[in-house]
TrEMBL record:
It is found in: Peroxisome matrix. It comes from the Eukaryota. One of its GO terms (biological process) is D-amino acid catabolic process. This is FAD dependent oxidoreductase domain-containing protein. FAD binds at T43, S44, A48, G49, L50, V162, G296, G297, S298, G299, I300, T301. Belongs to the DAMOX/DASOX family. GO terms for cellular component: peroxisomal matrix. GO terms for molecular function: D-amino-acid oxidase activity; FAD binding. Its main location: other. It comes from Caenorhabditis brenneri. InterPro entries: D-amino_acid_oxidase_CS (IPR006181), DAO (IPR023209), FAD-dep_OxRdtase (IPR006076).
Amino acid sequence: MVSPKIAVIGAGINGVSSALAIQEKIPNAEVTIISEKFSPNTTSDVAAGLIEPYLCDDDVNKIIRWTKATIHRIQEYMAEGNDGAEEMSGYWIQSVKEVPKWLEVMKNVNVLSEQEMKQIAKRPEHKFGVFYSTWYLEPTPYIKWETEKFLKNGGRIVQRKVENIRELDKDFDVIVNCSGLGSKKLVGDNGIYPTRGQIIKVSCPKVKHFFLDDQYYALLNDSTITLGGTKDQHQWDVTVNPKLAQKIFEGNCVNVPSLRSARILSHHVDLRPSRATVRLEIDSKLGKLVHNYGHGGSGITLHWGCALECAALVEQLVAKRAKL
Ligand SMILES: Cc1cc2nc3c(=O)[nH]c(=O)nc-3n(C[C@H](O)[C@H](O)[C@H](O)COP(=O)(O)OP(=O)(O)OC[C@H]3O[C@@H](n4cnc5c(N)ncnc54)[C@H](O)[C@@H]3O)c2cc1C
Ligand SMILES: CC(C)CC(=O)C(=O)O
């Protein structure tokens, strides 16, 4: 049977993961990743890698399904002894009492008692909190690991910006769009917009727990801590704002006083590809096109669940074409 030719646009975590999942689902497929930028220069590389739904208002049952698949994937990745992924525990402190349904995917979940809140709260608005364990997945080493597997499977990589999806029609049987915020222009999706996020990477080995409240976060990675966070919708400016950096640092020091002794390593800004829902579907108008973009602040968290479902949609299209 003739091998189906699949193009995947985008080389962030969703593009590379979808390409790999397609190879694993359709072993005789010839998969090519076509992207303007590659890791470590994608939005995915800026992510702190916390596994937790954030700035993503999709159906919570879908979010839970996708997150569970990602957690299982991370455990496989960790079992190989790879760096950049580990369980981490910490505090989720909020100003309103609300226990999100997605907490069911976390481990060691403990809603803090009034007594415990008195010890943990650092601000008057810290009214409610949960202690739990989750995972982190540092995107850059993970994308490298996935890319190596993709190439070993015979995958191809092309560096270029796709101006019009139709350019790919003649050379590919199925096209997968994982262009993130690029979808605004590439497929004319006015439902996708940037949510600007600024972070600081610091070194502070004595901090052993994450701490997240309504405004700030301190998230662990192998050897750094990522301090956030801003979430400015429809802001396209990716230059580091020093005043904001100071606010992020000071705000996190109030929550985690030990951070006062942190060594600042670097500052970063990037734009979350935000949308009312993740667009994971076969494009009804363009037939041979599958979309997998718009993951907001949760692209690392949702990636493998979305990649598996994207591959299943591609398999549907390949099967349909084989019958023609
Ligand atoms: C500061 C910050 C912190 C974050 N922290 C977390 C976190 O802790 N946990 C979490 O789950 N998520 C986090 N996120 C969100 C996460 O980073 C994104 O949801 C995720 O990276 C989206 O991945 P993607 O592959 O869809 O898009 P991207 O990483 O943006 O990749 C898009 C790719 O498409 C390519 N492309 C675009 N247009 C074209 C075109 N026309 N032609 C060719 N190629 C094109 C780009 O070059 C790029 O390779 C964070 C985001 C930010 C900004
Ligand atoms: C998980 C969050 C605390 C971080 C994040 O996802 C973001 O800043 O987009």
